[in-house]
Amino acid sequence: MYVLIHGCNLLERSAGIFPVLKQKSVVGVLLFSRSRNMICCLAVDPEHRKQGLASILLKKALDELDRSKEITVSTFRENDDKGIAPRALYRKFGFQEGEMTEEFGYPNQIFILYP
Length: 115
Hints:
Blueprint: E1 3-4, E2 8-10, E3 15-22, E4 25-33, E5 38-44, H1 53-64, E6 71-76, H2 84-92, E7 96-103, E8 106-113
Parallel strand pairs: 5-6
Antiparallel strand pairs: 1-3, 2-3, 3-4, 4-5, 6-8, 7-8
């Protein structure tokens, strides 16, 4: 059984972290910034994927962020094998491709959920 911990809100609610636990092990995590209205990190352990955890975490992020403004997330580019699942997830929730970017020397792309 998975447990979504009802978050640690950081910096006077300007950011949040929500881990997903299974038997005392963190198997997923969501980090977001309210001040930037962005998802900073959404990750699920490979052994626990394809069970809906990423969708649960993304729904949580969308509940916590301001839906009346653009919500952004940076993910892998289309030609990157690591981007297949996250890009499909973000598209499923209505995100659209935005600008190409680079983070920590790695090519990424911004996805945007418009109000």
